[in-house]
Structure formats: C-alpha cells, structure tokens
C-alpha cells in the first residue's frame, strides 16, 4: 500500500542527496592532494635555509601545482557531467515518478540512454499501476481513508469524499474531528492502541455524525506505516449498511406484522363460528377449520386434499354445484360472490341439512384460493318454523278467542234456563209415577244434558285457564267430546262405534283438556276419512287395564304414511292444509296426556286405518270416591243455604239438594244471607257468582271473616267460565269449589262429595 500513501507525500530528494555525496567525495579526495602540495611547498620554500635555486624554481612549481589542480578539476567536471549528473537526473526522475510527481524525461549522454529508457519504461509501468490502483480504490463501494497517528487525513477515496460532500483538498490535512465529529474520534481513540500494536480491528454498529445523523457502519482498521516514517497510522475501510439495516429492520417488522397477521387470521379462522373451507384452484381443500369439523363430521386431516364438493355437497346437487363454482372461478379473479346463498349440505354420516354460504377469492403466492364461509341454518330454520307455528297458534287462539267470546255470551244466557230445564227434568224423572211421563222426562233430561255438555265444551275451549285437577269420569269426557264434534261427524256421513267400559274408576285430571284431546283425535279421524267412500267409521273405546284406564280412538281410513309415523307427534308438525284443524295439534295432545302421567301412541291397523292408544293412571283419591259414594247414597242431615238472585235457578238447585236428602233454604240477596248465617248454622252454602251488591266471591270472603271453615264449604255457582276464573282466583282461603251451569243431578252430587272430602280431610289432618 506504499503507492496509496504516495499520492500526497512530499517528493523525495534522492538526486540532491547524490550530488551532495559526490561533492563530499571530491572534497575527501582533493583534500589530501592539497595537503600534499602545501606540505611540499612549505618543505621547499618555507624553511630559512631554502636555497636560492629552489626559489628560482618556485614559479615552475606553482604552475605544476596549478596544472595538477586544474587537471583534477576538469576530471571532476567530466566525471560529474558524464556519470554523476545523468545518474542523478535518472535517479531523480525515478524518485519523482515513485512519489507521483514525475516530470519530463531528462536528457542524458548517449551511454545513459538505455538506462533512461529502462527507467522511463519502469516509471510508465509504475504510473499505470498507481493509476489503476487509484481507480480501484476510488471504485470500491467502501469509504477508504488513511489517517495518520495524529488523526489527520492523509488520503481518501472518492466514496468517502462523496459521503462527506467535500473535495480532496478540503479533507486532506484536516483532522477527523473537523470532518466527521467527536464521536468518530472517540471510536479511533477506543481502538487506537490495539491497532498500533499491529492488530486489525473490526467494529459494527450505529454512530452519530454531525451532519449525516445516525448511520449503521461496518468498519475495519488496519495499521499502516508509510515508507520513511515510524509512526503507525490507520487505513480505515468503512461499509455503510444503514439502508440495509433499515431494510432488515423494516423486513423484521414486516415479518413480525405478517406473523401477527397470520396468527390473527388463524385465530379468526380457528375461532369462527362459521365453517371455513379453503380450496385451491383444483377445488382441493387446503384448510378446514374446527367449526367445519364440528359441522360436517370430518377431521381436518381427513378433509385436506379432498375435493370440497365430495365432502360437503349432497350427491343430487353435486353436478350443479360443480358447474356453479366453475363459472364463478372463470368470472371472478379476486373478490366475492357479493351475496349469500342457501342450499343443502351433507355431513359425513350422509345426513343433509340447510346451510347459507358465500365464497371469496384471494391471491396467495401467485395462486388463487377460494374461501367458503358456511353457516348451519338448522337452528335458524327451526326457530323460523317455531315462529311460524307460533303465529299460526296465535291465529288459532285469536279465532278461538273470537269464537269463544261469541259462544260465551250465548252460552251464559243459555246456562240459567238450561240449569232449570235439567234440574226440573231430573226431578220429573225422579218423581214421575207413569212410565210414559218418566220416559218423556228422561228424553227432556238427555237433550238438556247434551245441550249443557256442548255449551260447557265450547266454553272450555274458549277460556284460557291453567290446568285444574279434579276427579274425572273418562266416559263423560268421551261423550262430551263426541257431543262437541257430533254434527261434523253426522254431516260427513261418519258412523261412531262407541264402546264404554262399565264401572270405570275416576282419574285425576283436567276435564276440559282431556275433552280437547279426545275431540282433536276424533276430528283427525274425520278428516282422514273424507277421501274414503262409505262406510266411514270412527271407533272409540274405554276400558280398565290394570291400574290404568285405556282409551282407543281408531278409524277405517288410509292410515298414516310409515315415514311420518315417527314425526306425527313432533312439535309443529302437521299433514293438514292451511286452515284445517282445531289448532290443538298432536304434539299438544301428547303433552296433555303426558302431563296426566299417561302415554299416547300411534299405530297403523293391519286392516287399514290409524289407531291412537291412550293410557291414563287411575285416580289415587280413594277418600274422594268413598265420600262421593256416601253422599250419593243420600246421607241426610246436611243444612244447605242457596244464595241466588235467579229464583228459578235457585229453586231447581234446592229441589236437587232436597232430592239428595238434605235441607235447602233459598235467599235471593247476599246481605240477607249473611244475616241468616249469623243467626243459624249451615253445613254447606251455594252462592251465585254474579249477584247485585256482593257477588259470590265477596260474599264468600265475608263468610271467611265470620267462619273460615264454612267459607271452605261454600260452593260458587256460575255459568261465566270465561271471565269467572279470574274472579275466582282472588278469593281468600283455600281453593274455591265451583258448580258450573247448567248442572245436572250428578254434578250436584259430585260437588257435594268434593266439599265433604275437603272437610273430612281438614278434620283428619294433624294440627300444628
């Protein structure tokens, strides 16, 4: 690297040194001769005894000496011009060329021309090497400088000059601190001792420049001693990696952001409630998220690599799906379908279910990926079906409510006269002496009872009351249901075969709900028979089956399709066209039966037609039946107060009570009745719900304040079964016992039995 430092070093003085040395050599050679001449002159002429002859030859001697000196001088000049001067000129030319300051080629005598050519050729070659080396140094992408031991710039390449924005003259001879600032000086100082000891130092990191700011550098410091010097300087090679470092940092940030984005995307895909299926351009699955695993039943390992439609599309829809997706792939490069579609999908077990899906197209690494988002609509469809069923039920309820309001108004007006007709016909049958009178009374009584059952059935359907459990005669439930739907059966030319078991025990339940169940089953049978030619038959049978009561409703129609048998009791399932039916539904029928501890089942009969088997548990209330039997035997001794502003109704009720062997007193005002209660003792009180002044509930509450036990034995008589239950619910004390109009002889016996049962149970219960 001597050439790198020669560019700005002072030119060497090799020619002058040679001249001085030659002059010194001549002096050394001539001085002894001069001394010899001077000695001879002194020896010859300096002594006193020098002879005259010697003095005569003094001039000759002087001339001789002068000739010798002149000869020696001429010889010295010739030697200088022919030998020393050319050599000095050639040496100076070579030295200047080595220092980068070569001038013109010197003129030399003929014998020196060959040497001059050799030196000139060597100088040219060296100059070319120097220029080549200089160009190489200026061309390398490193900032290269030579800094001496005083930290003064002695040389710098083009890369460094461009970095600092200065010329060579503005840099060379100036200190590092002046050019780059104190922080760079500190780096030199920190590594200076080790470099001076001969160690090559390397350093990499950020450093702040005065004008350039922070730069990331990779620096190598090499010790260097120029020729002719003894102090160690620094050859510094600097690679500026700032842009690369910033790029690395940006790349690291991008990689980190990409990793976070991928993690986020993966988390979104993995946690999505929608199934996400990603396919390549060949429609092979490359991603199958957990929601897709749960939805379709395939594991991710099973799904990846498979054709997407082979996994999730039903066979009958597969070709259509393939055509649709191929058209989409040809049309859309990047983007989405812009809307969702509903279709059917297939699970691993082969079952089909409704889904909503959309497809997005994205680019990844030069390839297209198709991302399908699939949402299971099973629950949404179920909720929609429930909502539709609720709307239909609401529509049915509204229709029933409107019909019930109409029927309630009519029935309420019919209840009082019907109560009189039924009561009087019952008494007529009891007291008639002639058989023809008794038969007429029985026909009147049967017709009136039938009217009463129809009115009660319609009122039961019209009112929306909570289930009320009481002893129920299932045969009466069956006949009541048939009375309610009898006209429709007769108008459709459908015969009813009724087989009622005799002596069946009662069961505990809600008479109205059970009536609705039986009516609904009979109506279903009627509708199933409409497309059949005569004979059309509906069979209803009741019988005792161990500790249960069995009810069978069957028909000779087409039956139920086998694939619908298992669904016939599903909620909101129906095979009927819109607007047909009662709105009860077989699902509600099953709920009612199961709420009574029973079961209901559907079978298709071998001979044709559907058969519904209902099994209900018998009543566990042996006490009620025993008391009812005791009352039915007409055990005398009960004092009964009847309070009703309808005298005819009160009179009919009194005659039935007296017919059962009890004493009855009628009062048409509630305030008068309270006075009678205060002055007398009554076992049972009948009070009409709707009376002027105090109604039945207020009257019962007044009794409760006087005699709570008698209030519990107070029976409310009402024909208002629509608004009445709300009023009854506000009564004080125990549950109110109700006798509904129109009432029969058996109804009165039953309600007396119930009151007697409650009273007996109260007396037998342990006291606190």
UniProtKB/TrEMBL annotation:
GO terms for molecular function: ATP binding; phosphorelay sensor kinase activity. Residues 639-756 form the Response regulatory domain. SUPFAM superfamilies: ATPase domain of HSP90 chaperone/DNA topoisomerase II/histidine kinase, CheY-like, Homodimeric domain of signal transducing histidine kinase, PYP-like sensor domain (PAS domain). Pfam families: HATPase_c, HisKA, PAS, PAS_4, Response_reg. GO terms for biological process: regulation of DNA-templated transcription. Its EC number is 2.7.13.3. Keywords: ATP-binding, Kinase, Membrane, Nucleotide-binding, Phosphoprotein, Transferase, Transmembrane, Transmembrane helix, Two-component regulatory system. It catalyses: ATP + protein L-histidine = ADP + protein N-phospho-L-histidine. The chain crosses the membrane at residues 22-42, 62-80. Residues 409-620 form the Histidine kinase domain. It is an enzyme of class 2 (transferase). The keyword Membrane applies. The keyword Nucleotide-binding applies. PROSITE patterns: HIS_KIN, PAS, RESPONSE_REGULATORY. This is histidine kinase.
